[in-house]
Amino acid sequence: MKIYIKNHVFHYEIENVTRLFFPFEKLEVIKNIEKDIIDFDNLKVPYIFTGVEDSVILVKAVFDDFKKELTTDKSNSIKEDERLICSLLFKLLTEYTGIEMPWGMITGVRPVKYFRTLAFEKGKEYAKNYFKNSYFVTDDKIKLAETTEKHENDILNSSKENSFSLYISIPFCPSRCSYCSFVSQSIERTRHLIEPYLDCLCKEIEFTGQIVKKYNLFLETVYIGGGTPTTLNPNQLKKLVNTVNFSFDMTTCREFTVEAGRPDTITEEKLRTLKDNGVTRISINPQTLNDDVLKEIGRKHSAEETIKAFEIAKKVNFTTVNSDLIAGLPTDTFESFKNSLDTIIHYATENITIHTLSIKRSASLTEQGIKTNAQDAERTGKMLKYAEERLMQMNYIPYYLYRQSRMVGNYENVGWSKIGNEGLYNVFIMDETHTILACGAGGATKLKNPRTGTLERIFNYKFPYEYIDGFSEILKRKEKVDIFFKELEL
Predict the structure, then answer these.
(1) pLDDT of 370
(2) How many other CB atoms are found less than 10 A from the CB of residue 45?
(3) Alpha-carbon gap, residue 22 to 35, rounded angstroms
(4) How far apart are CA 234 and CA 198, in angstroms?
(5) Which of 72, 130, 380, 411 could form a disulfide linkage to 328, CB 3.0–4.6 angstroms apart?
(6) Res 17: pLDDT
(7) For residues 353 and 325, is the Cβ–Cβ distance under 8 A?
(8) Quick one: pLDDT at residue 366?
(9) Between β-strands 455-459 and 444-448, what pairing exists: parallel, antiparallel or unpaired?
(10) Three-state secondary structure of the chain
(11) Do 222 and 229 form a contact (C-beta atoms < 8 A)?
(12) Which residues 6+ apart lie within 8 Å of 198 measured at CB?
């Protein structure tokens, strides 16, 4: 599909709105075209034309027998012109496809943060009306955004000045899930890299800790993710966690999370090692408790192993346990999803994160040519509606929310929690509240200037072998953290 752009610079958002309706279509954006010298009547369809001529904004969509254009007057604001041109396109594509987008034409990752900004500037009623009338968000999603923002704001207000969080990457998994696009390696192929990787990682953590000690910074949360950190054995886990404990002042740390993730990597010895060495929160992420669906998505554990992992976590007496489910997985049904959620609630996990399936370009599902359709969106929407109603009934609150590209039905991911057990790191990273110092392969440090609110990013090498081979460069890049805080004169 071709998208023609004339006399405006809004090609990025035009492309994003189009992808809401055609997530798997190859789009070709043609900028700075001269409409008068192109014979649009004889162009190969489908195509979209968006242009600004004199004081008029015009959008035209042509798909086989569908041919329609809309116009509106140009405003005096570049930002408003962008919204107007996108809204015309959104209306045309909604009419052509018959698809109702729950989040309207919002394409950003953080709709709750946008809602908060609007509410802060002009009040919550304005924010709700703006979401509905200017971005066409449904009433249900506006209510979810408002409720989530309230609980999220309580966490943000509890954060200290000059605080930061620490993210540590363990990019190894027992196997690669078919929907996954994270930088993680199957240990069947990369087991030999774990020890040298861990040695380098601990050195980077120590180096980062030395920098932090020079400045008046407060460590609020630690998150060890991946990948699956519990692919490490108990001794390796102890070495990693203790390196964190020895490298940073942990007296200000409010939450220490390890994403245990895959139930087939969880043992009592591993969980006791984590608990005994200061970890307060873990994730056990089955994604589904249907064995057939697990097989379909490339998971090598069973529902029974997940139940056993929950029982071990309860026996070890972890403060907080999170569990992830994914709505919209291939071959999953509403009844199957309902059973998965009800079972997890039965085991009284304090956090439950409900994700919507997002099929990334680099995932094997995409390589297999799997695409979602209107029936998948309807099924997923039913799952999410049940989850929201059931979790609220059981006194869980939504405390953070984010969206991704290519989500089935263009829905959302929501973190639900029992009050007092919210995952702080999730909120801080979604809101970009403070600096995130990242260690390990694929890590992206985000340095936030508390005076300007701007972010400066430092990227580590993505893959374990690159990280090991180029470790001297990793430490060299980390020196930029020292320079950043020195210039702030903290």
Answers:
(1) 54
(2) 13
(3) 24
(4) 13
(5) 380
(6) 97
(7) yes
(8) 43
(9) antiparallel
(10) CEEEEECCCCHHHHHHHHHHHCCCCCCEEECCCCHHHCCHHHCCCCEEEEEEECCEEEEEEEECCEEEEEEEECCCCHHHHHHHHHHHHHHHHHHHHCCCCCCCCCCCCCHHHHHHHHHHHHCHHHHHHHHHHHCCCCHHHHHHHHHHHHHHHHHHHCCCCCEEEEEEEECEECCCCCCCCCCCEEHHHHHHHHHHHHHHHHHHHHHHHHHHCCCCCEEEEEEEEECCHHHCCHHHHHHHHHHHHHHCCHHHCCEEEEEEECHHHCCHHHHHHHHHCCCCEEEECCECCCHHHHHHCCCCCCHHHHHHHHHHHHHHCCCEEEEEEEECCCCCCHHHHHHHHHHHHHCCCCEEEEEECECCCCCHHHHCCCCCCHHHHHHHHHHHHHHHHHHHHCCEEEEEEECCCCEHHHCCEEEEEECCCCCHHHHHHHHCCCEEEEECCCCEEEEECCCCCCEEEEECCCCHHHHHHCHHHHHHHHHHHHHHHHHHCC
(11) no
(12) 232, 236, 239, 240
Pairwise CA distance, residues 425 & 420, whole Å: 14
Structure tokens at 418: 């029992």
One-letter amino acid for residue 148 of the chain: T
> CA 173: distance to chain centroid?
19
pLDDT number for residue 227: 87
Tokens coding 313: 């976590």
Kindly give the parts of the chain with pLDDT less than 50.
362-369
Average pLDDT value for the chain: 92
Residue 374's pLDDT is: 82
Identify the pLDDT of residue 16.
95
Question: Under 8 Å CB-to-CB from 428, ≥6 apart: which residues?
Answer: 155, 159, 165, 220, 221, 434, 436
The C-alpha atoms of residue 276 and residue 72 are separated, in whole angstroms, by 64
Closest-CA residue to 152 (of 392, 399, 341, 327): 399
479 within 8 A of 486, measured Cβ to Cβ: no
CA 464, CA 194: separation in Å to the nearest integer?
8
| Single pTM value for the model | 0.91
